[in-house]
Amino acid sequence: MKLKTFTPADVAGKKVLMRVDFNVPFKNGKVTDDSRIRAHTSTLKKLLDAGAKVALISHFGRPKGKVDPAFSLSQIVPDIEKAYNLKVVFVNDCVGEKVISAVDSIQPGEIVVLENSRFHPEEQKNDPEFSKKMAEGFDVFVMDAFSASHRADCSTSGVIPFVKAAFAGDLLEREGEMLGAVSENPAKPYVLILGGAKVSDKIDIVGNLLDKATTILIGGGMAYTFLKAQGKEIGKSLCDEERLDFAKDTLKKAADMGVKILLPVDSVVASGIDASDTEIVSSDSMPADKMGLDIGPETVKNFIAALDGPYGSI
Predict the structure, then answer these.
(1) CB–CB of 90/77 below 8 Å?
(2) How far apart (Å, rounded) are the C-alpha atoms in residues 240 and 253?
(3) What is the model's pTM?
(4) How many Å apart are CA 156 and CA 134, to the nearest integer?
């Protein structure tokens, strides 16, 4: 999977809007894991070494199109400065004159970090007019957020028609190469691990890799959609109701093709996402008033066995 990347000449002296993934784990006012921030170091260094002026744009959490201080990226500025050893100029919006002025004014050793793009409802609607505003003042767009690259948002793809040039960053290029290696002609046995909250985000992946995989392990929130598709009680667990038919079809197709799909046989459950009343229950006996938070210890053993085997003892 070959992506268009930039050379120093492409970005020298240019104003660059760089899409990053700063949707980091955050608890009690602190970033608990800065891996996603540090993952962009290579791309950012190349841009700055070439003499580009760089503004970083990202979403953070799910503010649902409204300004919410709980999801302000200002909270993670110290972590960004520490990860990159650079001074951050924070702008409390991602469009408008304040953005243009900040980018114009930054000095060597400084970067601009823009406020949460999802504070605007237009962002996830990929509104062309808002995309145009977001691109205003920039010459180049660099997409380096692989984890958000499947979304058609203003900050991921909408801005591209409104800049002079657009490129993939190092992280996106690397992830693309890895995805190509496992999707085009993968070696067998081949175990596909899926997680996340929504089945809809993974439909294309499942569809493209079902005939290539030997075993598919499904965890995370999306597992409960598949468990419900099997007719199991999932209580208050996450469920992508619109994709239940897809889950049923996938389970049937996998069975017909001899592809083993492993779902959780037990879960860590509680009365809510932040509740402390956790317990481990079988997937055959989920309480109606509980929600699944994570896979249980028996499922962990099954998943490890599938990865060791290729089928292990399952």
Answers:
(1) yes
(2) 19
(3) 0.72
(4) 11
